[in-house]
Amino acid sequence: HLQRHLGPCVAGASFCQPPSDQEPACSQAVKALTLCLVVAGSLRVKSASAVEAVVDPALRRAKQQLAGRHLSRRQAFSTAASSSIPARAVTRVLVPVANDSEEIETACITDVLTRAGAMVTVASVEKELQVRMSRGLKVVADVFIGDCVGQEWDVIALPGGMPGAERLRDSEDLTKLLKEQRTSGRWVAGVCASPAVVFATHGLLGGSATCYPAPHFKEKIPGGWQDAQAVVDGNVITSQGRVLIIGAGGQLGRAVGQAFKARQWLTFGADAHAAAKAPVTHILAMDSGSAPEDQGRQLVSELQRKLGSERLDAIVNVAGGFAMGSASDPAVVANTRAMVESFVYTSIIAAHAASLALRPGGLLILPGATAAFGPTAWSLPYGAAKAAVHHLVRSLADVETSGLPAGVKTIGLAPQTLDTPQNREAMPDADRGSWASLEEVAEQLETWCADPSAVESGKVYVIRKANSLPATFEAKNPMMFFASNFENS
Predict the structure, then answer these.
(1) Per the domain annotation, does 342 fall within a domain?
(2) Which of 18, 60, 148, 454 is least surrounded, with the fewest CB atoms within 10 Å of its CB?
(3) How far is CA 328 from the centre of its chain?
(4) 87 lies in a domain?
């Protein structure tokens, strides 16, 4: 990646002897590249001053050696002779991808290993370098899988996704690489469907493993399927993907759970009132009779116990509820408390859980409402609670002060009307062609969680639908939109 962006000077400085007239430029490139490696974690440093301690000796050594011989990456940047700061050997990782491989699993594998200092190569098993991932995202691989045969890889790591895993399974070149990797004792890793579909098919699993917990996958694991986020057996690592759904027992929550499970996520579900209905892998307790702070502690404790050292990829709060009432309604205070508990407290709990268990770069989704973009005199409890959630969305987008992990995005979801049995009963004569289905909303949430780069943090996404066409999801700034609606009204 650095070679492509810094150009031939980096290639000259790092790997070959350059012409003499390029030497000054190469020296600067060495320094720039070293700084990049420090940031990426390939060289361990503890302070800003330590950066210079690494860069200057590396620059001097590279300049001295450039004229004499070819340099390996380790030789060029080793600090053993001039600094007490240790260096790490570069680990070569191969990540094969196919049409319909899972986006988030591919992104997590490549991103995390690159941040750890590995040299990651993405290889296409298709006839083209560009592959279309499971949700339509197009990715351009570095090389074809056939170009990787005969090379030595420290790790070969496979993303999941169906039928992408089947296309990986059917690649002759990848099969040859995996079997050579297994024979040589080097590492192979698989996520989600790949352990069952690829590794088990080609006899690469000698013992226990984990994978997406579908019965037809679990039965393929020869040494027994394990209900764990990650399993290491010999030189084989297998793992699942992870999402927490709050409000998982409600109608939208159940649709969301089904959508994520269909895309092979490991799902954790929590619901204070209907948890038993949640179609999730793991149900987390939230006692409906407990105070919100106790519910939060209970949820976080159980979640951390099940996750261990692992992290969630996304947290989705779709807790539901509705209450009307103007200022003159005798029940307005009680209804307000109920709405705050349903939406505000669950969103605060979700944010707190995110601070402890969400991976950097993950996604947090909170339950907003289109009605909260303007005055709701007819429903003070509902409007006030939803407006508070919109405020949380805006506030949590500032990750520098919000307490969330680096790069986490927070968005709100604001449907107009969802197609539910209750809404059909309450509005029998309404135009249902303008109602978004639970399934299309759930699928969009899964798509965002699979690729958080598709959303803008701090925005509330308004769901609109007309004439039975597919629903649209439009990002709005909640505070500015509220002010505009108020002025227009």
Answers:
(1) yes
(2) 60
(3) 46
(4) no
